[in-house]
Amino acid sequence: MKKDKKKSNIESKSLINTIIEDKKSMREYIKTHGTLKGFKSEHFRFAKPL
Amino acid sequence: MSISDLQNHCDIYELKDTDEGYEFVSVNGISYFITFSLYPSFVGVDLECYVFNIESSKSRPPYDAKVKRTIIYVLKKFFERNEDALITTYDIADQRQHKRKILFDRWFNDGNPGNIEKLEFALNDTYLCMYISVDNPLKGFHNENILNIVEILKDN
Lengths: 50, 156
What we know:
The complex is a heterodimer. By secondary structure, chain A is mainly alpha-helical. Chain A contains 1 helix and 1 strand. Chain B has a 7-stranded mixed beta sheet with strand order 1-2-3-4-5-7-6, sandwiched between helices. In chain B, helix 2 (65-81) crosses helix 3 (97-111). The termini of chain B are far apart. Residues 152-156 of chain B have low confidence and may be disordered.
């Protein structure tokens, strides 16, 4: 049980850093291309929940 | 102001569906990109957890009340249609993360119908905020997961 919790923590840490990096990447992409069209990430997928 | 009020008064910018999410252009010609990202790394969480993000084609765009109303509309619509959680963080590139957070807090407070709870954590350089319906039965489990993230980052 303890082992599972430790694993979950490590993944969470990695995730939050990834989120921050992805945010920067999107901003840079928009700065270069003027749009987000065509932006790809191997970490996440875009969703349209509305 | 309700969503139908907003729509009836055409008081928001027209949202365009794109492959990446939603987009609108302000009267100043600035494009705004609204995204909801899903990360498969949210292991062990039975609830969809979207990372909400807003970017614009111009850094430091001028204040535009219609932009604010459009964002509030999107947030309201999300929580009307979903029982999922939203996570936001604030860019630290220009050290204006605190100002961004204050602005977004104001928008959230103006648009919160009263049933959305905000969990907020100060990290080393920025903030992590999570928004979830108070009626969500999995809220407690999700809170625990976020607390784990914060604990680890503070240790570094």
